[in-house]
Amino acid sequence: MTIANQCTITAKADQEKPLKSELNALVARSLLEKGCQKFELYQLYDAQDKFFIIEIWKSERSYKKHLEGKEYLQHKEMMQQYIDSEVVHPLKLTQCLTQLGLKEKKENK
Fold first, then answer.
1. What is the rounded distance in angstroms from the CA atom of residue 95 to the CA atom of residue 72?
2. HEC string of 35-81?
């Protein structure tokens, strides 16, 4: 079963730049993990302290492996100094998104 999440992260005051840098590193590393299908970072134009991550994992197993990985846990702990709040929202993929993902994979083969 595919796992998808939207994470909302708010930086502490004056910590947007270091948090953004660390989040970009997290995205780059996560995209290399087996089972990671999408991992994107967004920042609000009008609220520079707010970030959104959209992540999609091939299976619950690959997502759990990501969350329990040594590198992820170390990175997450280090980033806490920059984070004021973080909320994770599980998402349900729509048929449209599923079809789009399958179409892109077929075209790349």
1. 30
2. CEEEEEEEECCCCCCEEEEEEEECCHHHHHHHHHCHHHHHHHHHHHH
Q: What class is the 3-108 domain?
A: alpha beta
Q: Is the pTM of this model over 0.85?
A: no
Query: Rounded to whole angstroms, how far apart are CA atoms 103 and 10?
Result: 34
pLDDT over 90 (residue 79): yes
Query: Domain extents for the chain?
Result: 3-108
User: At 23, is the secondary structure helix, strand, or coil?
Assistant: helix
pLDDT value at 104 more than 60: no
Residue 48, number of CB atoms within 10 A of its CB: 12
